[in-house]
Specification:
Elements (H helix, E strand, L loop, with lengths): L4 H30 L10 H22 L6 H14 L8 H12 L8 H24 L4
Length: about 140
């Protein structure tokens, strides 16, 4: 492997690692949000399957189509991070961790980040943690 190919391989591996983490965390949110739902409440198996499909498709589009073609990594990180923070309004959907993962993966490891990008990435991570905590706390599974 050449010296140029190794960093590129690490970036691809890292990007897919973030994608997997985002999908897994999204799945946890969907599981806890839709398990053991009382009659008359929103949620259940059907909504869980639909939202899980949305999370997988979103991750596939972001990580397989959008991120490999990015021309301005910082702008992409800002956009996906801000959308990730705003997505806490629909916390039950599981998209927040996928968007946060995309915000982090958009700027490859070792590439300099400006303060604005770093702040948005941290906010997206905090939004993900809040969504996880709220969903698990409201769940009947624990």
């Amino acid at each position: 492997m050449t010296a140029v190919a190794e960093p590129m391989q690490r970036q691809i591996t890292s990007r897919w690692g973030f994608a997997g983490l985002g999908v897994v965390l999204g799945g946890v949110i969907i599981l806890f949000g839709n398990a053991n739902v009382k009659k008359g409440d929103n949620g259940g198996l059907g909504p869980a399957i639909v939202t899980a499909a949305i999370v997988v498709v979103l991750a596939a589009v972001l990580f397989a189509v959008v991120l490999p073609r990015v021309q301005n990594a910082r702008r992409t990180a800002m956009i996906t991070g801000i959308v990730g923070v705003v997505s806490i309004v629909a916390f039950w959907s599981g998209v927040t961790p996928v968007l946060a993962a995309a915000a982090i993966a958009a700027v490859p490891p070792g590439e300099p980040r400006d303060r604005g990008v770093a702040v948005v990435q941290v906010l997206a991570l905090v939004a993900t943690l809040l969504v996880l905590v709220v969903t698990i706390a409201q769940s009947d599974l624990i």
